[in-house]
């Protein structure tokens, strides 16, 4: 039981970085009186899909994303694995962790004239610390599950306790922004993409399975069972915190206006209740959140790339990931979030369909044709959603992109909500089942 709790805490610690702190806060501010409905949508992609991703490894006897992706095809598996790990590694998630921890926790203490140089120095120290802990991946259960996660939860509870004992404002009368006015659930659903946790579930699967094995759990059926139990512990903690944070964001509207990102709001909330001590406390909370997740991401990235590209060793990949992240992290938090959205709109549907197909593989006997048709149809829709998420000024330069979006707007179901991949994936499943039926009939 104790070991399961440690792994559950590790699961939570791996997933819950600074982005998981700031996005629920932002949803709460923008959703206003519709916060509960928006939060439900956010929980589907924020905790539901990551949990299914963890379970998918156990039920499918897979130990890596390559194992899952191979059912579509070896080449697709390698391409998807490479892209996904670059996204949750040096291109987006890792740099965002460093930038978030600076902007939320430390920027308030730095004069505006020294922000750029301070960010540079901070990110250098941040990634140096991550490098130190990432050198020995076998210790990750101790670093994250036993030490950093419990400390993080205790400190965060202090701020949340103040927020609910002395609320800033009412939830029921809070103003509602943008898409949350008419489509609160679906807007929250797509906002959950920003956590990267469905992608992280596929990325962290290797680490979690290895941790199970290090505790002596070797047989696939027991690994699947313990993955589900430990995953549930981590996911439930995440869901509770997401809900509390989103409600805190909505209540903050009683004192503060809607900000550019939830990090700014969280800093305001901490200072409002506890003054300079609150700002210092938040800095420690965010730093712990970011460091523990960064250790997990850099470890997962390097271990996977070491397997995919064996000519380069593990430690070298850690250095490459952290050096690249150091450079990219100095672009700023708001800019990083904006840049990541088109990529997430492309990769998330592919990750979600792979998870769902892996969970339901026994229904269609893991027939490759079904994996391929679902993936192909989803790829078409996610590519269009990716184009739609590009900056408008960029789209307007290319008439072909404008024509594609005009067609999609008129003829693709759920396109305006960023969910056109859902009917496309269902259509791909239907086509795959039909082809599979005729193949089986022909072979008989």
TrEMBL record:
Name listed for the protein in its UniProt record: Branched-chain amino acid transport system carrier protein
InterPro entries: Brnchd-chn_aa_trnsp_Livcs (IPR004685)
Membrane topology of the entry: Multi-pass membrane protein
Protein localization: Cell membrane
Coiled coil spans: none
A GO cellular component annotation in the UniProt record: plasma membrane
UniProt record similarity statement: Belongs to the branched chain amino acid transporter family.
BP terms from Gene Ontology: isoleucine transport; L-leucine transport
Alphabetized UniProt keyword annotations: Amino-acid transport, Cell membrane, Membrane, Transmembrane, Transmembrane helix, Transport
């Amino acid at each position: 039981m104790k070991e399961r709790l440690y792994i559950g805490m590790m699961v939570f610690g791996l997933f819950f970085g600074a982005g998981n702190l700031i996005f629920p806060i932002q949803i709460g501010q923008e959703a206003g009186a519709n916060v509960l409905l928006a939060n439900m949508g956010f929980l589907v992609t924020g905790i539901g899909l990551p949990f299914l991703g963890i379970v998918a490894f156990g039920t499918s006897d897979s130990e890596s994303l390559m194992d899952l992706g191979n059912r579509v095809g070896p080449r697709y598996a390698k391409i998807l694995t490479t892209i996904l790990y670059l996204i949750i590694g040096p291109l987006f998630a890792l740099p965002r962790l460093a930038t978030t921890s600076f902007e939320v926790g430390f920027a308030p203490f730095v004069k505006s004239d020294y922000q750029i140089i301070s960010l540079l120095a901070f990110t250098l120290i941040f990634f140096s610390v991550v490098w130190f802990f990432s050198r020995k991946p076998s210790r990750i259960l101790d670093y994250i599950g036993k030490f950093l996660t419990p400390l993080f939860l205790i400190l965060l509870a202090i701020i949340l306790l103040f927020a609910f004992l002395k609320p800033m404002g009412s939830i029921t009368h809070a103003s509602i922004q943008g898409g949350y006015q008419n489509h609160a659930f679906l807007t929250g659903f797509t906002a959950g993409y920003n956590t990267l946790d469905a992608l992280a579930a596929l990325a962290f699967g290797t680490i979690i399975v290895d941790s199970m094995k290090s505790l002596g759990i070797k047989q696939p059926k027991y690994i699947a069972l313990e993955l589900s139990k430990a995953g549930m512990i981590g996911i439930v903690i995440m869901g509770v915190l997401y809900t509390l944070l989103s409600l805190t964001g909505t209540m903050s509207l009683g004192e503060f206006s809607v900000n550019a990102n939830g990090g700014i709001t969280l800093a305001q909330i901490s200072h409002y209740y506890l003054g300079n001590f609150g700002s210092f406390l938040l800095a420690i909370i965010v730093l712990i959140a970011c460091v523990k997740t960064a250790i997990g991401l850099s470890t997962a990235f390097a271990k996977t790339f070491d397997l995919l590209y064996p000519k380069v060793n593990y430690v070298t990949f850690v250095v490459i990931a952290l050096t690249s992240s150091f450079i990219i992290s100095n672009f700023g938090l708001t800019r990083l979030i904006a840049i990541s959205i088109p990529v997430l709109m492309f990769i998330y549907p592919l990750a979600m369909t792979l998870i769902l197909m892996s969970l339901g593989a026994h229904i269609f006997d893991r027939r490759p044709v079904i994996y391929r048709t679902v993936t192909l149809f989803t790829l078409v829709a996610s590519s269009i959603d990716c184009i739609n998420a590009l900056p408008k000024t960029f789209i307007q330069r290319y008439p072909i992109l404008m024509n594609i979006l005009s067609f999609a707007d008129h003829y693709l179901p759920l396109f305006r909500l960023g969910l056109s991949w859902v009917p496309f994936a269902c259509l791909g499943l239907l086509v795959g089942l039909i082809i599979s039926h005729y193949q089986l009939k022909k072979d008989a």
